[in-house]
Amino acid sequence: MPRYLLALDQGTTSSRAILFDRGGNIVSCSQREFGQIFPRPGWVEHDASEIWSSQVGVASETMARAGVRPGDIAALGIANQRETTILWDRRTGQPIHHAVVWQDRRTAATCEELTRDGHAPTFQDKTGLVVDPYFSGTKLRWLLDHVPGARARAERGELAFGTVDSWLLWKLTGGRVHATDVTNAARTLLFNIHTLAWDDELLGLLGIPRALLPEVRSSSEIYGHTDPDTFGHAIPIAGMAGDQHAATFGQAALERGMAKNTYGTGCFLLLNLGGEPLPSRHRLLTTVAWQIGDRVDYAFEGSVFVAGAVIQWLRDGLRFFRTADESEALAASVADSAGVYLVPAFVGLGAPYWDSHARGTMVGLTRGTGPAHITRAALEAVACQSAEVLAAMRLDSGLPLAELRVDGGACRNNLLMQIQADLLGVPVVRPRITETTALGAACLAGLAVGYWEDIGEIARQWQADRRFDPAISADERESRMDGWKRAVARSRNWAVPVSGTTGTSETTGTTDTTGTSGTTGD
Ligand code: ADP
User: Fold this and answer.
1) SS in 3 state form for 448-510?
2) Is the CB of 9 under 6 A from ligand 1?
């Protein structure tokens, strides 16, 4: 058996490739940024050809850097930015338009119309999603409606649609395989997460011809092999999942009730629901966690729009410190925030509020308030927002939470992790390998080719770096969360339209008055 696994981690701002060995250790890593295209306010595009060239470039580079030949790779796995929508010509393999990125809000009006016409519950019941421009369905419809000739060509079967996983798979296999995995399909608004199939009613509501769609496969199986022209050797492509799903897998949150939180620009929380796609009463998303063989696991997902970004704001906007890492020592220089709460609702609030009219606010200021208190309040805000999403998950699932597994750039802040444990009342555990997205893709691929024997072997490989145990009383936890909720109440419904009405976004999260996109760090 060849010795390594190659993970492609295709993100929103960069393409990365990481080689792992059998112990799940990182052997080498390469990364390349690519262009962000902003044709109009609220619009975000990528050049799909550049996604491909950067991704294949870093894959070759990371193998060369480690002195590893393609023949030494047992399998390749893909984790990708989700929802980003690509339409290409099946014959030439050329995209017919730039990719419309998940952050793009151009379809807000379409989503409002679908909601006004009463279709939101149908989408929610079948897909587990809210009707929002974030997801692929309305982006694909926009492309069909706006690229000249696209709809007729789509109906004739000349075009192919795919999210980034499908696009990379198509390119890697030299155009031989047009497929996606269930986790990516589950983010399109076109896929029924109960029947695990493209849904004719939803396709009809959005006007999407079936001929465009990729075949839906599990998250761990051999989809095809790389074209020998690409790496000089046919490597099996054997794992695919959306980035947050891959990260949950890489965290070995494999059992029902296990949860992970990624602390990046925003926070992404997923709670494993096992085989049950529960509906949410607190406006969480229900999504497919992954499919392995015939077994499908589901998850609740909630996101916090501004998390690490509030630290960036203190660094770049208020110039409190020069590096994000310095936030820890500054916040630790005071015993508490002295009653200051900072609600970083810079672009509205995500789950469980979905309030696009909320704006940032700071309360509890006194003459003694200084940068250290405000920085501490910012770290507490990251933890409070995550605690509220997890509270909603606990309520909706009825599952107790034993611990929270963490990753992402801001999880190296030990004070933040301690505050998180305090506010959750459960231990927070940081793994030795925090490259969980790439690791998850590698694990899914490794499982499919027998590189690892079973899923248990992956769970056994996961190792904690550090565990943070709650160190405050239940009363104090409650009083701090109460203070947070009072502060949130003051941030809400601030940026109301001039007419003084709040519109529909407060309850549906569909209106784009604020550009809530662009900050969630998918
Ligand atoms: P993304 O993938 O969303 O770009 P990363 O996972 O790379 O994000 O994390 C970067 C974010 O984490 C930035 O917003 C940064 O401000 C924050 N961050 C990085 N290090 C720290 C730290 N030590 N303390 C608090 N926040 C941090």
Assistant:
1) HCCCCCCHHHHHHHCCEEEEECCCCCHHHHHHHHHHHHHHHHHHCCCCCCCCCCCCCHHHHCC
2) no
- Measured CA to CA, the distance from residue 234 to residue 224 in angstroms comes to 9
Residue 315: CB atoms within 10 Å: 18
Q: How many CB atoms lie within 10 A of CB 475?
A: 8
DSSP 85: B
Q: Check if 327 has its Cβ closer than 6 Å to any atom of ligand 1.
A: yes
Say if residue 516's pLDDT is above 50.
Answer: no
Distance (Å, whole) CA 22 – CA 336: 44
What is the residue-averaged pLDDT of the chain?
92
The two structure tokens encoding residue 364: 């509890």
Give the integer Cα–Cα distance in Å for 401 and 258.
7
The DSSP 8-state label assigned to residue 255 in this structure reads S
Tell me: the pLDDT tens digits for 145-193? 999 999 999 999 999 999 999 999 999 999 999 999 999 999 999 999 9
Rounded percentage of the chain residues whose pLDDT exceeds 70: 95
pLDDT confidence of 348, banded at 50, 70, 90? Answer: confident
264 lines ligand 1 (CB under 6 A): yes
Give the pTM.
0.90
Atom of ligand 1 nearest to the CA of 309: 14
Q: Give a three-class secondary structure readout of 337-349.
A: CCCCEEECCECEE
